[in-house]
Structure formats: structure tokens, C-alpha cells
């Protein structure tokens, strides 16, 4: 069985972003995003019979979310694999729709991390084998990957800084981005060091925010209000949970998730027009560009430094500004989907990639632990 082109995203939306009004809860932001995404799709809430969600705030997020939204889904998936959960939910929802277990799937997320003082809400217990060394979770883990990549391939701090600069250049074209001021390579290098070699500007934002995605059958999506973005392929992979068990700090499971997604889609990296990557730290896009096949292993740094991912570059990456400049409310994966869909619809205004027909949304969870890749296309790609 192939899921290629059997389902399509019919609606997407964010909640209010940045620092929301005092007293709002993560579920309030889920409600905002859901209302807007259903309106975008032209689908009534009563049609939603599949619910897919993950949360650091609510251990039984499926039940809490269904209750808050006032829906009675026949299929619920609360799988949590970190920030990649929502890209994973796309694959699970497509399979459920194809199997007849539900017909209209709602994928949602909400967080008030910034209003909560920036505290990272995590249900995980410290790893007893790593905790004695007092790492700063999760930045120390990503700093280790960055340092190893620098050691093995000659990647430089300047090249990592260029990832943040490119993200800011895209954010300056996005009115919804949290940070839109000028940012230079030197600004990133001179920022306060947090975990060597990563400074504050190598790190994602801390914001509030929520998102919602409505997935339904391709046949139904064609008759709805918004232009559909068809799910052509998806793949997921998990190699480890803790960074001390990562087989190779310079290679992620995106190598497997991307291979599976591209195989289902019948496409390769060379066929992709726009890429949305989970950029919790500047090392992430470098690793994912390599592991997904957009450049060779070890060439991610020079690829970025040559302006390839910035506006006007050969491969538009994180066109909304990414987690580094647009928003990052704890788990970012759902926003890669939202931006990929909008690019294929051609509704992104100044940041629109001309003629975009294919897009990748890639999620990362844990400490480079879970990787999930989705490939989308317009009707022309079917």
C-alpha cells in the first residue's frame, strides 16, 4: 500500500504567537489555531473525527484536547516523540484515513513557554548516566554535535552563524515573525556564549504559540475552500533517546526518514523547491541538509556560507524565519508543515518562492533523537 497522494492538507493556521495575553493556557492557543484552520479549510468542527496531538503540559493530551475542543473523535493519537511529533502525526493520520478509521484529521499543538518564564516543560526524567556531568539540556547536547562536526569536517562558527543570518533574512519578509531586526554574522559570533560553540544567537527563540493542520482525503480536499497540498511521502526514524547513545554525533536518523519519505514520494532532493527544517540550533539545518541529501556529508557549512539557503539562494530553507527568528514554542515541528503548505499555495507574500510545486517539512525531536520527513506537492505533482 502506498499513501502517495491519497490525502491532502486542507487547512492550516497558527494561534497568536510571541508572548500571548496573560492567563491563556496552551489549550486556549490550540483552540485559536483549530478555529482558524477549520475556517481556512471550510470544514465544520463537527466533521473532525481524528485527533492527533502531543504536549509537554498534558500527559493525556488526546483526552484533554478533545474535551477542550468539544469533539468526540473516533481515532486519537497522542504519540509524543518531541518536536517531530506533528510531522509523524501526518503519516499516522494519512494511514488512518486510508484505512477508513477517520475521515477528517486534526493535528494540533499549543504552548505558553514564553509566558511561563521560558521554562522548558518536559515530562522526561534526567538520564542518570549524563546528569552527573551537569549538561544544560538540551543545548549542551546540540553543542556536542556542533563541536564534533567542526572537528571532523572543518565546519566553522562563522558558517553556523550564517544559518541564523539566513533565517533572519527570511523573517524580515514575514510580518508574523517574532524577531525581524537586522542580524549579522558578527552579531551571532559576539553574542553571549551558552554552550561552546553555540551562542544565544545560535539558539532558537522562546515564544508562545500553537498550530493546527487539517488533513483529509485527496478527493474531498479538491472540493474544499483552500488549495490542497498533497502528502506525497513521509518517513520516520529514531536511533536513540539520549545524546550519549547517539551512534555518530555528525549523522542523524534523518538519513533514514528522508530516504523513506522520498521513496514513497517517488522524488529526490533534486526535485524539491522549498525546505522547512526544524532549526532549534544552527547546527540542525547543517546536519539535516546533509542527511536528507541536499548536499554531501561535511559540506553543509560551505553550502550555507555560500548563501544557498537564504532569500535568493538556490534552495530556499525556513522561509518563515524558522525557530531561530519566527517562533519556537517548545516544539516546532507543526510550523514546518504550515509553512510548507502555504508555500505550495502561493500565499506567502514577500517571502513566496516563485513557482513552488514541491516542499519538504522535516521535524526533529529530543536531542537529535527522532527525525520525521514529509514531502508535499501541488496537484501538478500527482
UniProtKB/TrEMBL annotation:
Superkingdom classification of source: Bacteria
Domain Thiolase C-terminal: residue ranges: 235-378
CDD domains referenced in this protein's UniProt entry, alphabetically: SCP-x_thiolase
A GO term, aspect molecular function: acyltransferase activity, transferring groups other than amino-acyl groups
InterPro entries noted in UniProt: Thiolase, Thiolase-like, Thiolase_C_2
Name recorded for this polypeptide: Thiolase
Lineage: Bacteria, Bacillati, Actinomycetota, Actinomycetes, Pseudonocardiales
Amino acid at each position: 500500500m502506498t499513501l502517495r497522494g491519497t490525502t491532502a492538507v486542507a487547512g492550516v493556521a497558527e494561534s497568536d504567537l510571541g508572548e500571548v495575553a496573560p492567563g491563556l493556557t496552551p489549550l486556549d492557543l490550540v483552540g485559536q489555531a483549530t478555529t482558524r484552520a477549520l475556517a481556512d479549510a471550510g470544514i465544520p468542527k463537527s466533521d473532525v473525527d481524528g485527533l492527533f496531538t502531543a504536549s509537554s503540559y498534558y500527559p493525556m493530551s488526546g483526552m484533554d484536547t478533545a474535551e477542550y475542543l468539544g469533539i468526540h473523535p473516533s481515532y486519537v493519537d497522542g504519540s509524543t516523540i518531541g518536536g517531530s511529533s506533528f510531522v509523524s502525526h501526518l503519516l499516522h493520520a494519512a494511514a488512518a484515513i486510508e484505512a477508513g478509521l477517520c475521515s477528517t484529521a486534526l493535528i494540533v499543538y499549543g504552548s505558553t513557554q514564553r509566558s511561563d518564564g521560558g521554562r522548558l516543560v518536559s515530562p522526561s526524567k534526567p538520564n542518570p548516566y549524563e546528569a552527573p556531568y551537569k549538561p544544560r539540556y538540551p543545548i549542551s547536547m546540540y553543542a556536542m554535535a556542533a563541536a564534533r562536526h567542526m572537528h571532523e569536517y572543518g565546519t566553522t562558527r562563522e558558517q553556523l552563524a550564517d544559518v541564523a543570518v539566513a533565517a533572519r533574512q527570511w523573517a524580515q519578509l514575514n510580518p508574523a515573525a517574532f524577531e525581524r531586526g537586522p542580524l549579522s554574522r558578527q552579531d551571532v559570533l559576539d553574542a553571549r556564549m551558552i554552550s561552546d560553540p553555540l551562542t544565544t544567537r545560535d539558539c532558537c527563540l522562546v515564544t508562545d504559540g500553537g498550530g493546527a493542520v487539517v488533513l483529509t482525503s485527496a478527493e474531498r480536499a479538491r472540493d474544499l475552500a483552500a488549495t490542497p497540498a498533497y502528502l506525497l511521502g513521509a518517513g520516520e526514524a529514531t536511533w536513540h533517546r539520549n545524546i550519549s547513545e547517539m551512534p555518530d554525533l555528525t549523522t542523524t536518523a534523518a538519513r533514514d526518514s528522508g530516504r523513506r519519505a522520498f521513496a514513497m514520494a517517488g522524488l529526490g532532493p533534486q526535485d524539491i523547491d522549498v525546505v522547512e527544517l526544524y532549526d532549534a540550533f544552527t547546527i540542525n539545518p547543517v546536519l539535516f541538509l546533509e542527511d536528507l541529501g541536499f548536499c554531501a556529508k561535511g559540506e553543509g557549512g560551505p553550502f550555507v556560507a555560500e548563501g544557498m539557503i537564504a532569500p535568493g539562494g538556490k534552495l530556499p530553507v525556513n522561509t518563515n524565519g524558522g525557530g531561530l527568528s519566527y517562533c519556537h514554542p517548545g516544539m516546532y515541528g507543526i510550523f514546518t508543515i504550515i509553512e510548507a503548505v502555504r508555500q505550495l499555495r502561493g500565499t506567502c507574500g514577500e517571502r513566496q518562492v516563485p513557482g513552488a510545486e514541491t516542499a519538504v517539512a522535516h521535524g526533529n525531536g529530543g536531542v537529535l533523537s527522532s527525525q520525521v520527513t514529509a514531502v508535499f506537492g501541488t496537484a501538478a505533482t500527482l
